[in-house]
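Retro notes (design track)

What went well: tokenization of the new backbones is finally stable.
What didn't: we kept losing track of which sequence belonged to which structure.
Fix going forward: every design gets posted as structure first, then sequence, in one message. First example under the new rule, 475 residues:
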């Protein structure tokens, strides 16, 4: 057997309980109607064409548009990544030199969108939550101040960690003060927002373009996503042309069929009811022993709402670090989380999870608390020991736009000489894929602090991290 296939088979045999993407969690019953390899076909006459759909693909996309409240929906076979990029490319001819206001904590595909489009970002800093030391919230007023130079707004909601932005206020402001500005929403982690248990779907809230990474929380195959459009503010033809450039000319029918299949998850909201009850039970049993992000955190540190289907726990009340907790969860309990850092672990639910998965997680966490809770935490209190100035981020100054930086001559230097130079690459810790420094930004002491701990993280975009080198712009 080939090596990759062998590794995959070995992994599957472990029968891990998945709290990571994709949302189907390997459940065969959810995907039984996708027949492999029979469905791996090309664009044959009765099977329609993704780039000029007139038949079954058009019908499936229309069904998705109807369910999400969009005018048109485009199926993506290269993830929400291609949706973010297409959004920016579609704006290229309409902004007349104005900037796009965008969160600095946005996914790296947004930075790719700036390189491809040549548009200029106007970054909004995140608010760092002092208990988790993560960029969970933001100050909505940053989106609405000094709006004269702004031609479009891009918002990520929910964040990877499930914190939701007050989109309604931003849209109300736009409608009142600057009605021509399009609002683009990266709702990659919220394809399942449908029904009373979840925050609102951004299309129905009035966003112009919304991208969903359907594979993350619904039962679509990895890479399958959707891009929705509503209204006239963004040129639909430009959007279609951008997708023609960005998406393959050989779209995978299994991915497309899985997108249509995933719509059934939205039409079965009861799938989530039992999961919701189990998550609330988990919160009740563990809150106070472990710091868990819950609905009680809404309204503080720039968090508007919390999506309960993402379980973020902070492990600093335990005697061991998050990486060790993850090792125990994986090796002793067969539980696989989505991501972790030094002190936090994120567990993602999808439509394929069953209530017993959450019960298993709850029992495992209880066992860990019993064994490793620090004595000082026994009184069921969590102290916030972090300095108060942690709740804002000093963004590195931007000297060049991402595209100017892409085109500029560069050189490789030693990391120890990099302070004060302009980064030639966009460097992210992955996951979550949020850049520590974007190409064109200054390498500040805050950035150096991360880069100097290279061994502690998984990096994307940093070619020379093993050699202790970094690409900088020639000055
Ligand atoms: C906020 C956000 N947007 C976009 C993406 C890209 O999605 P995809 O993996 O479907 O390309 C991700 C992936 O992690 C993400 O977290």
């Amino acid at each position: 057997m080939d090596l990759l296939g062998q590794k995959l088979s070995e992994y599957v045999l472990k029968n891990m309980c998945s709290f990571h993407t994709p949302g189907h969690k390997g459940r065969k019953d959810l995907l039984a109607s996708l027949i492999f390899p029979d469905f791996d076909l090309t664009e044959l006459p009765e099977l329609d064409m993704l780039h000029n759909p007139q038949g079954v693909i058009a019908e499936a996309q229309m069904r998705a548009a109807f369910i999400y409240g969009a005018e048109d929906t485009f199926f993506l076979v290269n993830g929400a990544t291609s949706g973010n990029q297409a959004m920016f490319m579609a704006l290229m001819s309409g902004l007349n030199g104005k900037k796009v206001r965008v969160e600095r904590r946005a996914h790296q595909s947004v930075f790719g969108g700036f390189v491809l489009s040549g548009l200029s970002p106007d970054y909004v800093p995140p608010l760092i939550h002092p208990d988790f030391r993560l960029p969970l919230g933001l100050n909505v007023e940053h989106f609405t101040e000094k709006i004269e130079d702004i031609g479009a707004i891009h918002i990520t909601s929910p964040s990877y960690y499930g914190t939701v932005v007050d989109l309604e206020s931003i849209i109300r402001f736009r409608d009142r003060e600057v009605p021509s500005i399009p609002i683009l929403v990266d709702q990659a982690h919220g394809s399942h927002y449908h029904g009373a248990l979840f925050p609102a779907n951004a299309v129905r809230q009035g966003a112009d373009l919304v991208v969903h990474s359907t594979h993350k929380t619904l039962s679509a195959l990895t890479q399958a996503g959707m891009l929705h459009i509503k209204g006239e503010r963004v040129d639909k033809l430009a959007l279609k042309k951008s997708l023609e450039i960005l998406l393959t000319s050989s779209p995978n029918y299994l991915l497309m069929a899985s997108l249509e299949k995933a719509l059934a998850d939205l039409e079965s909201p009861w799938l989530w009811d039992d999961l919701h009850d189990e998550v609330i039970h988990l919160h009740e049993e563990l809150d106070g022993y472990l710091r868990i992000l819950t609905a009680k955190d809404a309204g503080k540190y720039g968090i508007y709402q919390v999506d309960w289907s993402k379980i973020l726990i902070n492990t600093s009340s335990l005697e061991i670090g998050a990486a060790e907790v993850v090792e125990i969860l994986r090796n002793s309990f067969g539980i696989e989380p989505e991501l972790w850092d030094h002190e936090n672990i994120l567990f993602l639910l999808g439509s394929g999870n069953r209530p017993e998965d959450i019960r298993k997680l709850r029992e495992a966490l209880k066992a860990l608390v019993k064994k490793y809770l620090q004595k000082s935490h026994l009184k069921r209190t969590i102290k916030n020991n972090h300095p108060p100035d942690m709740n804002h981020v000093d963004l590195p100054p931007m000297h060049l736009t991402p595209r100017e930086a892409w085109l500029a001559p560069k050189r490789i230097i030693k990391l120890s000489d990099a302070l004060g130079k302009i980064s030639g690459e966009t460097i992210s810790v992955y996951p979550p894929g949020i850049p520590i420094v974007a190409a064109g930004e200054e390498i500040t002491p805050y950035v150096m602090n991360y880069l100097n701990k290279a061994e502690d993280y998984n990096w994307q975009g940093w070619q020379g991290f093993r050699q202790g080198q970094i690409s900088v712009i020639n000055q």
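Added context from the reviewer: The first strand starts at residue 17 and ends at 18.
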